[in-house]
Write a structure and sequence with these properties.
single chain, 77 residues, mainly alpha, two-stranded parallel sheet, 6 helices, 2 strands, 52% helix, 10% strand, globular
Length: 77
């Protein structure tokens, strides 16, 4: 089984391209823009998950814990 690793310094586009299931997971956490292919392909190419949390006033630790609960490991903390 492949370990699904989230690097907090990769762009949202890179992460969702590598793990398409992240689109629904992130949307459920309130990152609704990730569902929009145009936004994901433009803003998502330069924004990291860390920056997205800051911009939307989301607790990065909460997001990391949810990703771990969904079977991802997280690096870059």
């Amino acid at each position: 089984m492949q370990i699904k690793e989230i690097d907090l310094d990769k762009s949202i586009f890179e992460l969702t391209d590598e793990y398409p299931e992240l689109i629904d997971i992130l949307a459920q956490m309130g990152f609704v823009g990730v569902k929009n292919p145009l936004l994901r392909n433009t803003v998502g190419r330069v924004m990291t998950l860390r920056e997205g949390c800051k911009k939307q006033n989301k607790d990065l630790n909460y997001v990391v814990q949810e990703l771990k609960r969904k079977g991802f490991s997280v690096k870059g903390l």
